[in-house]
């Protein structure tokens, strides 16, 4: 009886490890897709609108749903990445100062930040 249990246990452990690594891999893909949504939002900060939403779709697959909202001293970004049946959500807040220091916003003379256009200064 004990021998049968040990044999079953020996054969069951590798399968559990395989499924755990598959789940972790799927979550990593969903996380990467959520990060793509964050990068898209940072590159597409609107000057006048206070809120934008976009779905990142390629080859008939939904990769990410992105929501960007302007706040008092910065922006809030929520990005949900998808892979197979997994979804990962990332929420971040970036201040206007950090957006300016990273080159995403440019401060006007009268103090209101605006979007920096690539190749122009």
Whole-number count of domains: 1
Residue stretches low in confidence (pLDDT < 50, at least 5 long) are: none
Order of helices and strands: HEEEEHEE
| Spatial separation of the terminal alpha carbons | 77 Å
Structural class: alpha+beta
Number of strands: 6
Helix content: 25-40%
Instruction: Based on Cα principal axes, name the global outline.
Output: elongated
Largest sheet: 4 strands, antiparallel
| Rg, alpha carbons | 22 Å
Share of β-strand residues: 35-45%
* Chain-averaged pLDDT: 83
Strand sequence of the main sheet, in spatial order? 1-2-3-4
What's the helix count? 2
Explain this structure to me?
- With 121 residues, the chain is an alpha+beta fold.
- It has one domain.
- Helices cover 40% and strands 37% of the residues.
- It is built from two helices and six strands.
- The chain has helices spanning 2-43, 96-101, and strands at residues 51-58, 61-71, 74-83, 86-95, 105-107, 113-115.
- The strands form two sheets. It has a four-stranded antiparallel β-sheet with strand order 1-2-3-4. A two-stranded antiparallel sheet has the order 5-6.
- The protein is elongated and about 75 Å long.
């Amino acid at each position: 009886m004990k021998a049968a249990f040990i044999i079953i246990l020996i054969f069951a452990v590798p399968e559990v490890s395989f499924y755990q690594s598959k789940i972790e891999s799927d979550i990593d893909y969903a996380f990467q897709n959520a990060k793509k949504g964050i990068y898209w939002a940072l590159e597409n900060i609107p000057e006048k609108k206070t809120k934008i939403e976009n779905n990142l779709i390629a080859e008939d697959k939904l990769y990410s749903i992105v929501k960007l909202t302007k706040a008092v001293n910065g922006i809030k970004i929520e990005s949900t990445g998808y892979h197979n049946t997994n979804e990962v959500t990332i929420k971040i807040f970036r201040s206007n100062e950090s957006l300016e220091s990273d080159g995403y916003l440019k401060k006007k003379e009268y103090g209101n930040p605006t979007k920096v256009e690539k190749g122009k200064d």
